[in-house]
Amino acid sequence: MNIRLANKFDQPFLLDVLKNYQQQIDLPETSLNLSIVVKEEYISKLFQHILLGAGLALIAEKDNKAVGILLALCNGNVWDPEVKTLNHLLLWVEPNARTSSAAMRLLRAYNEHGNKMIAENKIKMFSITKAYHLKKLNLEKMGFKKAEETWCIGL
């Protein structure tokens, strides 16, 4: 298993991942009126934005084939836009690779890159959202501290 930074040639894999995510994770926010297919232009722009330095995109590969992805985006804090944070957007491992170490390796690489960005004063913190499909991950064991919970109406 190899973890590497994503590049522009990984965009087709990202689009496939998002289509699979939309089909397999039954969340209302992934099945809005417009499908991922319709939003490809937006997603392409977001991915290019991340690749140009506005975040982090990591790919897990097995036998030179992409099997997982972690995306994160740098944002200014809502109360102080000069305080930058790196916020996890997506962690996905293909179903046929879920018994591998791909997810843990992606998370370890995320930690390494996040800590490096803190040391370089590019960000003040980095976070991960623990959606219900990630409930088995022990994020505390990886150094994360619970900062808040998100509760929703309308799902």
Q: What does this protein structure show overall?
A:
The protein is of the alpha+beta class. Helix content is 30%, strand content 24%. It contains three helices and five strands. The chain has helices at 11-24, 40-54, 102-119; strands at 2-5, 55-62, 65-76, 84-93, 125-127. The protein has a five-stranded mixed sheet, sandwiched between helices. The mean pLDDT is 86.
Question: What's the helix and strand layout?
Answer:
Blueprint: E1 2-5, H1 11-24, H2 40-54, E2 55-62, E3 65-76, E4 84-93, H3 102-119, E5 125-127
Parallel strand pairs: 4-5
Antiparallel strand pairs: 1-2, 2-3, 3-4
Assembly form of the protein: single chain
| Rg of Cα set | 15 Å
Shape: globular
Helix/strand structural class = alpha+beta
Euclidean distance between termini CA atoms: 36 Å
Percent range of helical residues: 25-40%
